Amino acid sequence: MNDSLAPTTSALTITRVLDAPRSLVWKAWTDSAHVSRWWGPHGCTVSLDEADRRPGGSFRREMRTTEGALIVVTGTFEEVVPEQRIVTIGTLERPGSPPTTSRMTVTFEDRNGKTELTIVQTGPDISADYVKNAKIGWGQAFEKLEAHLASVQGSAA
Fold first, then answer.
1. Lower Cβ count inside 10 Å, N or C end of the chain?
2. In this structure, is residue 96 part of a structural domain?
3. Into how many domains does the chain fold?
4. Residue 132 belongs to some domain of the structure
């Protein structure tokens, strides 16, 4: 583990059970065509999602707010276990705030045809304030993800 990203007293942990099979949730999380339809809070749009989704691979995601502000997330993949787990080290850059660097672990658990998705984000930049705001942002992104999953269920997603 990279000591500079060791867990701190503040960590972000979010768990959501999605009404979709794990294979579809994985695809929605890892296929740029899906990511661009749900990633980010309400009103944000993904303008770029480039990723080499394998250990050591890099990623860059650009998102625009309704006000036109550019939010950029860049980093590398530490671990990718298809339909089970993704671990990244990434930096979030947004106007008016210092960059936030963290380790994010996303797990995908089958729950009888549904998927339990858990995000754990740790690092020295994860403050209580960041956790509060990120929970709102992730909550809205999950609402968009749920709507996207419902729209592609049964289709050739």
1. N
2. yes
3. 1
4. yes
Secondary structure (3-state) at 147: helix
The token pair that represents 42 in the structure block: 């309400």
Residue 122's domain is classified under what CATH number? 3.30.530.20
Buried-state track 132-147, b at ≥16 Cβ within 10 A, e below 16: eebeeebebbbebbee
DSSP letter assigned to residue 20 = S
Instruction: Give the span between the Cα atoms of 40 and 79, in whole angstroms.
Output: 22
Distance separating alpha carbons of residues 66 and 141, to the nearest angstrom: 15
- Whole-angstrom distance, CA of residue 128 vs CA of residue 11: 8
Structural domain contains residue 2 = no
49 bridge partner residues: 61
Segment 69-109, tens digit of pLDDT: 999 999 999 999 999 999 999 999 999 889 999 999 999 99
SS3 103: strand
pTM exceeding the 0.85 threshold for the entire prediction: yes
Domain residues for the domain of 124 are 8-151
**In the chain, which residue ranges form alpha helices assigned H by DSSP?**
22-30, 32-38, 128-152
